[in-house]
Amino acid sequence: MELDKRGKNAPSPTASCSRPAFSMSAIVKKPRHVFLFFVFFLAFLPAFTFASPFTMISAGDPALEDLRFLAIQSGKSLLSLTPPLSRDEALLILQDIGADNLSPAGEAAYNRVMEALNPKPLYSNGFLSVDAHIQAGVEARVRTNPGIPWTQNVKDSPPLLELPVNVYAADKAQLFIASMLGRSRSYFNEAGVYVGSNIPTDAGQIDVSMPLRAFFAIGGAWWNFEIGRDRLSYGLGRSGNMAVSDTPDYYDMARFSVFSSTIKYSLMVSQMPLVIEPIMGAAVDDVLTRTTQRHLYVHMLDFRLFKSVSFGFTEGMMVGDSPLELRFLNPLAIFHSFAAWRDYDSWGKDSERSDMVGSLFSLDVNWAVLPSLVAYGQFALNEWSTPYELEHWPDAQAPNATGFLAGLEYARDIAGWGASFYVEYMYADPYFSILSTPFASYIWMRRISDSEPLRYTWIGHPAGRDAILYMAGARFSKENLGFCLNAAFTRKGQRTLQWDWEMGKKANAEKTPSGIPENTLTLAIGSNWKPFRWLKISAQVGGSFVFDYGHTSGAQEHGFDAMISVQFTY
Hints:
By secondary structure, the chain is mainly beta. It has two domains: 13-47, no CATH class; 56-569, Porin (Beta Barrel), CATH 2.40.160. The chain has eight helices and 27 strands. It has helices spanning 13-18, 24-29, 31-44, 62-74, 87-97, 104-117, 387-392, 505-509; strands at residues 56-57, 85-86, 123-124, 128-132, 135-143, 161-169, 173-181, 195-197, 214-219, 223-230, 251-259, 263-271, 274-275, 290-291, 294-305, 309-320, 357-370, 373-383, 401-414, 417-428, 443-446, 455-458, 467-478, 481-492, 518-532, 535-547, 556-569. It has an 18-stranded antiparallel barrel. A two-stranded antiparallel sheet has the order 1-2. The protein has a two-stranded antiparallel ribbon with strand order 13-14. A hairpin with a 2-residue loop joins strand 17 and strand 18 (373-383). Helix 4 packs parallel to helix 5. The longest helix has 14 residues, at 31-44. The protein is globular, with a radius of gyration of 27 Å. The termini are far apart.
């Protein structure tokens, strides 16, 4: 072995080959090396080309409607329709359906989905792509009776200005932010308002919770992960879904999914701040009234048999006054502790039962009866008292809290129009989604501004508890034109969003609809037209007829409303 000039062992040729000529530490120490490294990286970056960017399709995206139409027309059940869906999951659905032997309407729907899954960014160097648009929307509404809700959901009102920005990292990751300027949706429902628009008339009406959608997502051919703020919906319900629905304005959440063509597992956790105000009921002196330590945990397992029948099992928990807990992220309920409610101090001083933990279970079924016809159903459960418990401890039993939904949908091509016709039924017990404390109840809320009351909605079906809903509707689409018709009859009991928990014989004996039901018949027709890629015009007219209005026998009210919206995209 040779010695160097300092008398130390000189490295052998083998040793010198095993050592890199440069290291990252050397690069960092010398700014010139840093500059040269990035020049080298950017010069060769275009060599890394990919088929298309990684994208997520969220609830409310028109591509989901096309996927649903394609699946029903093909006579195959959807493994799961629990958006957001990643690009790879949507492609798996399309691959299962196939591009051959599609009807003209089916082919048009297939092409629209492929277009949504293959965006054309404004800038791309092969690895990194950036896409941004400016969207402006003006909406005007008018109604004849401000005491009756709009037939068009105020949640669907577009912002005045929006800047959606997508940053794609190859076909593996997506960063999405939709900055916006818009009016709070709750102002549409102010008492005495006959005319409304999405244009804020003063600073206090601006929705300062924006952006309503902003997330980072990453995934591959069999998995995806998303964290941020987005819209969620678990199920095929047209009127809404029983467990997790697109009723809230958004969910602050993290979710993970693994999937194949026959099985899918999903995990979601959402942080849901809680502020108890008069609408939540109960006396709140000297007890906890405001906390951000409230989380919804949901696990869902979907599987499909014979490509015609799909089942989905959902298990969830709402945990109040507690930080994020790892045990509830475990995919098996036995590790959560069935008696987790014992681990938390009860709420209030005099309540016989005031748990901080509320449970949720649901079963979804989707059956492709034959090509173009699908039957689907959902059953959800919070509480169940057995006949034995009711017989031996009637005064200490919680009321049953169950709900279910059933529907039929027929979809086919009619003279080149994609047409679907559906009927749906929904039922919810008087105490469904309301549990022994506001902390454990399945209610979502957010504060718009200090001068405005909280915005409350259900996490599940928008009709909420103590309700029976019958609905029928139809949708038609061809090229850039679409129409929809909808009729619904709702029987609503006297139980509302207000937290009013009860126990014992009286609560257990209560049936839906409770008290004097308010009966509402709603009819609506809507349309949308895209004469150009950058312009969309939507309109709707509807009417509501209410019998036993305000739960008062013989009282009747009726009202009509209209909406028009013009949206520009550049």
